[in-house]
Amino acid sequence: MDIQREIAATPLWRKYWYVPVVALMVLATYQFKSVMGNASFIVEENKLVTATVQKGNFRVNVRATGVLKPLNIRWVSSQVSGRVEQAFVKAGALVEAGDILMQLSNPELRRELEKARWEFEAKKAENHAAFVALESQLVDLENSVVEAEYSYQSSKLKLDAETQLFEQKNGAVSALDYQRSQLAVKQQMQYWLSQQQKVEKMKANLAATKKAQQARLGLVENNYQRVKDQVAALSVLATTSGVVQQVSLELGEQAQVGASVALIADQHSLYAELQVQEMKVSDIQIGQSVVIDTRSNEIFGTVSRIDPAVNAGMVQVDINITSELPNEARPDLTVDGLIEVSNIKETLYVKRPVFAPRYSKAGLFKVDSDKQFARKQQVKLGQSSVNQIQILSGLSVGDTVIISDTSNYQEHQEVMIN
Q1: Residues 374 and 275 in one domain
Q2: Which spans are transmembrane here (predicted)?
């Protein structure tokens, strides 16, 4: 037979179990909303860096690093080839113009000097012998002129006497003898004149020969002097006063003609070479004031040159130093430079936030007065300095903004500071 089963009634708590859960969720949401407000993200206060907006004169500076360089620098090179026999200076030595830096040796060059010297002496002796021979010939010709003059004068005296007798017509002198005497005078006169011409020609020849011999002797002497100068150049001398920055050769090395021997710089006249980021160099102009930090002292200068080329994202800017150099200043000393680009009067500015480029719009989190919440504010940024940036709009004097990294909650409009 069939047994009738009794159906048990379902308890209410099982039927409506979700009601208290929903109620608790609503209560929790209400409590969370009352605490969080409109904030959708929580940040820890100890991880935040804030800054207050200020108003005043805003100095726009560009920071750059670089080194000090000498204005007067000179490479000393070898004028001859030779092996380094002795080095008299090292890097850092103070030298004067004319000091010996290095001694080279070249035996072949010294043998060539000895040969050139003997050639010069031989040529001088040859020239002297040739001059003596020509002068002896000139003396002989001059003696011939004197003899010809005496012969002419003798013939002239005889002709004068015969002329007186011939004019008396007493027959003491025949017409034939008288004519012979006249002819003899003419011959002696012509001979005397020809001898004088020979003397003049000889003098001209002697002068031309002397000039030619002197030219040949000068050629030999120049060769001798050239080799002599080359031997003297084996002693490499400092061409200017200063501090030796670098010595390029060591003992025993072979130096070639034109090879660099040493680098000498004037340590009392320096300038700074700063490397500026290409994005910032557009604000820099010739003549702007610069403060150079040597880590121990500050020196002052002005922008003197801006390189037109960009190298690895950097532009070289030369600084002319106008103040007195401190004791630690020396070539290749690493320095920091602060270039004053402009000075904006009475403007808003704040410490530069992370990821806030100049002349842009950025969402900065403005902290409430109770420092419990921070809301994103669209801010228009202007000129930037090393650590500060100009505020064009969006903030007021006294506003506090977060300047640390906000990339983790940048998409949120409001955050809670815990």
Answers
A1: yes
A2: 12-32
Q: Are strands 94-95 and 242-247 parallel, antiparallel or unpaired?
A: antiparallel
Contact 380, 393 (CB under 8 A): yes
In a domain? residue 187: yes
Parallel, antiparallel or unpaired: strands 260-265 and 94-95: unpaired
In which domain, by residue range, is 81 found? 72-106+234-265
Distance from the Cα of residue 261 to its chain's centroid: 18
Instruction: Output phi, psi for 394, to 5 deg.
Output: 105, -20
Q: 309 and 351 in one domain?
A: yes
Among 375, 362, 360, residue whose Cα is nearest residue 416: 375
Q: Are residues 247 and 102 in the same domain?
A: yes
Residue 249 confidence (pLDDT) above 80: yes
Are 173 and 308 within one domain? no
**Phi, psi for residue 58 in degrees, rounded to 5:** -110, 110
- Band (pLDDT 50/70/90 cuts) for residue 145 is confident
Q: How confident is the model at residue 9 (pLDDT cuts 50, 70, 90)?
A: low
Interior/surface letters 105-137, b for 16+ CB within 10 angstroms, e for the rest:
ebeebeebbeebeeebeebeeebeeeeeebeee
What total number of domains does the chain contain? 4
Determine the pLDDT at residue 29.
52
H or E, element range at 402: strand 400-402
* CATH number of the structural domain spanning residue 244: 2.40.50.100
Tokens of 241: 């006063």
Query: In sequence order, which residues have a C-beta less than 8 Å from that of residue 372 and are 6 or more positions away?
Result: 416, 417
The predicted model scores a pTM of: 0.55
Same domain, 102 and 241: yes
Are 246 and 102 part of one and the same domain? yes
* Distance from C-alpha of 408 to C-alpha of 415, rounded to nearest angstrom: 11
Task: Quickly tell me which residue has 């650590």 as its tokens.
Answer: 387
| Percent of the chain's residues with pLDDT above 90 | 30
CATH code: domain of residue 410: 2.40.30.170
Residue 91 scores a pLDDT above 90 = no
Q: For the range 308-317, what are the long-range contacts, defined as Cβ-Cβ under 8 Å and sequence gap of 24 or more?
A: 310/278, 313/277, 313/278, 314/275, 314/276, 314/277, 314/278, 315/275, 315/276, 315/277, 315/278, 315/281, 316/273, 316/274, 316/275, 316/276, 317/64, 317/66, 317/273, 317/274, 317/275, 317/276, 317/281, 317/284
